Amino acid sequence: MRTLTILLTLPALLACDTESGLAPAEPRAQLLGSSEWSEPVNLGAPINSTGREIMPALSADGRSLYFVSDRAGGLGGNDIWVSRRSSVDGPWETPVNVGAPINSAGQEVDPTLSADGRLLFFSSNRPGGHGRLDIYVSRRNPNDDLAWGDPVNLGPRVNTPAGDRGPDHVVVSPGAPAMLYFGRGIGLRQADVYAAPVTEDGDPLAPAELISELSAPGAVTDGPSLRGDAREMFFMSNRSGGFDLWLSTRRSPHDGWSVPDNLGAPVNTSFAEERPELSHDGRTLLFDSDRPDGLGGQDIWISTRTPGGM
Questions:
Q1: Residue 184, domain member (yes or no)
Q2: pTM metric for this prediction
Q3: ∠ CA 155-161-162 to the nearest 5 degrees?
Q4: Minimum mean pLDDT among 8-22, 91-105, 245-259: which range?
Q5: Does residue 80 belong to any structural domain of this protein?
Q6: What is the pLDDT of residue 209?
Q7: How many whole angstroms separate alpha carbon 33 and alpha carbon 28?
Q8: What is the side-by-side strand order in the sheet with 261-262?
Q9: All residues at 6 or more sequence positions from 129 whose CB lies less than 8 Å from its CB, including other chains
Q10: DSSP string, 131-176
Q11: Residue 4 DSSP label
Q12: pLDDT of 210-240, one tens digit each?
């Protein structure tokens, strides 16, 4: 971890949280982590359909929702779609296929946005990659959900023959490189979470490194999603049997991750809960599940929490 340590420890490590005024001894992760998640609610139409809706990705302002679907009108088996709303309390509009050059005749999955909305990362098995799935980045200017530039493969510092997917982009601290967290592994047999520092344009600065404290031998640890302050990470894992959502925290963006905890009920059920997406402020959790009362084979669900002690 030497490369990542050097890159991440350049800023002052003992600075207070400027947004909340909390010192490192009282991280907001602990305050939020002590809160309970509400009973998940199906997002319903027009987001969910009789098709398969999975892998949600919410913009930092909460007004754009990207997700993956095999519904009619796509370019391939799984495409990336986007829905917008006029305010964080408004209804979601009819989703639109993001189209080319993002979507192709191949599989496009695992969308995620940078906090500033300029970068879209996703996974694809389109020709020219390094493995089963590779991670790509596309850039846009201005802020138009249908005006993405040609995707660029992140190359061998991130992508490998094993398959790399489920990226999440987070700015760890001012003055330090942003980090790209993602899953690497072979199908449902074994996967682990890796991280690589990236430039402002999303280009890797160093080879990705394993986050070993999150791994479970013989199990899948995948689909990481971090809160905006990089102190909480949600991910999917089958380490206790079926796929559930798990949580790990850390005292500061420069510390190691805690032993993961299963989120338990009401978020997790005996059905599969997968691909968590945590909002930038950490109060909203989106995920996909095949639990009953959905519109299709797999739907997107939402749960919320109120920060404890704030």
A1: yes
A2: 0.88
A3: 115
A4: 8-22
A5: yes
A6: 97
A7: 8
A8: 221-226, 232-237, 244-249, 261-262
A9: 153, 159
A10: SSSEEEEEE-SS--TT-----EE--TTT--TT-EEEEEEEE-STTS
A11: H
A12: 999 999 999 999 999 999 999 999 999 999 9
What CATH number did the domain enclosing 155 receive?
A: 2.115.10.20
From the CB of residue 73, how many other CB atoms can be counted at a distance below 10 Å? Answer: 11
Across-strand partners of 299? 289
Residues of the domain holding 84:
2-11+37-304
Residue 72 in domain: yes
Token pair belonging to 225: 């999603």
Give pLDDT tens digits for 15-29.
333 333 333 333 444
Whole-angstrom CA distances from 208 to 141, 143, 162, 182, 195 are 27, 29, 13, 9, 5
Q: How many domains does the chain have?
A: 1
Question: What does the alpha-carbon distance between residue 289 and residue 100 come to, in Å, rounded to a whole number?
Answer: 28
**Residue for token digits 């669900």?**
301
Whether residue 229 lies inside any domain: the answer is yes
